[in-house]
Amino acid sequence: MDYRRYLVEAGTGIDLHGEDATKAAQRAVKDAISHSSMVGLGQLFKIKNFSEMEEALMVDVTIAAPDPDKVDGEAVLSILPEGKRRINVIEGGLKFPADSTKDEAKTHPIVMVNAVIVVLVDVDKVPRK
User: Fold this and answer.
1) Domain extents in the chain
2) Given 3.30.70.120, 3.40.190.290, 3.40.50.10860, 3.30.1330.20, which CATH number is that of 3-122?
3) 55-83: string of b/e by CB count within 10 Å (b at 16+)?
4) Are 20 and 111 in contact (CB under 8 A)?
5) Helix (H, G, I), strand (E, B) or coil at 28
6) Cα angle for residues 80, 84, 85 (degrees, 5° grid)
7) Which residues contact 45 (CB under 8 A, 6 or more apart)?
8) DSSP string spanning 29-91?
C-alpha cells in the first residue's frame, strides 16, 4: 500500500437540542465534504466513474468532540459516499453551557463537534489505462 494524501478538509457540526454528539459529528463530516470535490482525481487517472477507484480510496476521519465516548463512529462513517473508511475520535469541540446541569431552564444544552477528513489514494491500486 502506497497511500498519498489527495484532499484535506475541515467541518463543524452542531446539535442545538439534546447534546447528540453523533448527530453533530455527522453534520461536521457533511460540512467538510460539502466543501470539497474530487473531480481532479478522475482527470488525473483518466477514470470514468468512482466505482473504478473504490479499492484505492481511504477516507480518514478525525472527530473532536467534548465527550468522545458518546460518538458512534460507525454511524458517522456511514454517511461517507466513497472509499474505505476509518475514524479517530478525540477530545475537543464545545459544550454549552459547559456544565449542562446548571441553568437548564434558560437554554438547551448545545454540543459542537469538529471534523477533519483526509482522502488518501493508494497509488498501487489506481487503475492504469
Assistant:
1) 3-122
2) 3.30.1330.20
3) ebbbbbbbbbbbebebbbbeebbeebeeb
4) yes
5) helix
6) 60
7) 53, 126, 127
8) HHHHHHT---HHHHHHHT-SSGGGGGGGEEEEEEEEESSGGG--HHHHHTT--SSEEEEEEEE
* Grid cell at residue 13: 457540526
Other Cβ atoms within 10 Å of 84 Cβ, number: 15
**Amino acid residing at 76:** V
Question: Beta strands 57-65 and 110-122: pairing type?
Answer: antiparallel
- Tens-binned pLDDT, residue by residue, of the chain (129 aa): 888 898 999 999 999 988 899 999 999 999 999 988 777 777 777 666 666 677 788 999 999 999 999 999 999 999 998 778 999 999 999 998 866 565 555 678 899 999 999 999 888 877 666
- The CA distance from 29 to 63, in Å, is 8
Q: Do residues 58 and 3 lie in contact, with contact meaning Cβ atoms separated by under 8 Å?
A: yes
Q: Which helix (H) or strand (E) holds 113?
A: strand 110-122
